[in-house]
Design brief:
binds zinc ion, 12 helices, UDP-N-acetylmuramoyl-L-alanine:D-glutamate ligase, nine-stranded mixed beta sheet, 2 domains, Protein-Tyrosine Phosphatase, Chain A, single chain, 369 residues, alpha/beta
Length: 369
């Protein structure tokens, strides 16, 4: 379609209200949350199959006629999407290193976003991520959401001037050009989502801080689009799995929750979900094209706090993972060929499987049998 009619996305988006969601991590979950929240107003189309570049987005636009469309957009394709579909609101989650062989540097992506966002009427953006804030300031209007961030390793160099960006607790700022954390309109306070007008309990079926952040971004965006925040929250609260992420599969007495983590920031958040438990872990690791062929970023992920826990590694780059864990001082780590065998090596009960992209798809397939 794009070859025959390059104008197709523009025509298909005409007279529909397009909302875009982009960022390195959390796009699919936030898109699902936002779609559920907006569905309280009427029919919504979305690309919930994860196809988030030009071809997939165009297919999704062609497949429906709903007046509202929520589009998960690959971070490198966001400028194209803005140009093609003129979204009314763009939700910007975070930017961190990902797929080292494919993506440009984080600062380069942030500048590409900044150039593209000039024409966007309103962004809902994380106030916690310097690269996102720098880019979001280019839009005509901003709603800031302070969602916090465990991962700050891509935020130490100011994305605007190259100076040092100092992080102190949840605050950050550059002493050279003055770029700093904006005053949030929405923020997380323990288990509550708070704004000047609202204080809402944020109890979700999905686990972890990371999903509270995704829900906060979705509710803030839905509120801007006219959904009562408490209704938005009621619509997202019970979503228990998104495109297989966080789904629980049973196998011979083991209950395996499968978590997708594609890059250092994602691994950090996924490991945080099991922190404070002694639950056994399966780490499944590949390095096919979509995983990023260069797995050296494993050394950016802190694994040392996994000591004292049963861990089994699997996947085609299991040996890289084993070496990484050994460097973190972990010993007695078992290794095996596939997720089912890994599960059978662990005692009955709850197990968390953390897997990167193709390993996650494989784990879903074998566990669904
Ligand atoms: Zn600066």
């Amino acid at each position: 379609m794009l070859a025959l009619a390059p104008e197709a996305p523009r025509i298909l988006a005409q007279s529909r209200d397009v909302l875009a969601v982009s960022g390195t991590n959390g796009k699919t979950t936030t898109t699902a949350y936002l779609t559920a929240a907006l569905a309280t107003l009427g029919p919504v189309d979305t690309n919930d199959d994860g196809a988030n570049t030009a071809a997939g987005i165009t297919t999704s636009l062609a497949a429906g006629t709903a007046p509202r469309v929520v589009i998960e957009t690959d971070e490198r394709w966001l400028p194209w999407l803005i140009e093609a579909t003129k979204p009314s609101i763009v939700t910007l989650l975070n930017l961190s290193r990902d797929q080292l062989h494919r993506h440009h540097e984080v600062a380069h992506l942030a500048h590409a976003w900044s150039d593209a966002l000039c024409s966007v009427p309103h962004v809902v953006a994380s106030a916690s991520d310097p690269a996102v804030v720098m880019a979001a300031l280019a839009a005509r209007k901003q709603t800031w959401v302070a969602v916090g961030s465990r991962w700050t390793q891509d935020g130490h160099v100011c994305p605007r001037c190259g100076g040092e960006c100092v992080h102190e607790g949840a605050d950050w700022g550059c002493d050279v050009c003055g770029l700093c954390k904006p005053t949030p309109d929405w923020w997380l306070e323990g288990d509550e989502l708070v704004s000047k007008q609202f204080r809402l309990p944020l109890r979700l079926a999905l686990p972890g801080e990371v999903n509270r952040a995704n829900a906060a971004m979705a509710v803030a965006t839905a509120a801007l689009a006219g959904v009562e925040p408490s209704q938005a929250l009621a619509a997202v609260r019970d979503i228990a799995a998104v495109a297989g992420r966080y789904a629980i599969a049973e196998h011979q007495g083991r209950r395996a929750r499968v978590v997708l983590a594609k890059n250092p920031a994602g691994w950090l958040e996924s490991l945080a979900i099991v922190a404070g438990t002694t639950e056994p872990l399966i780490l499944a690791f590949n390095s096919e094209g979509v995983d990023g062929r260069d797995p050296s970023w494993l050394y950016d992920v802190p694994f040392d706090h996994l000591g004292g826990r049963r861990v089994v590694v699997t996947g085609r780059r299991a040996t890289d993972m084993l070496v990484r864990l050994e460097m973190a001082g972990l010993t007695d780590i078992a290794s095996t060929t596939d997720v089912l065998t890994a599960l059978e090596m662990l005692p009955e009960g709850d197990v968390t499987v953390i897997a990167n992209y193709t390993a996650f798809q494989e784990a879903r397939r074998v566990l669904a049998r």
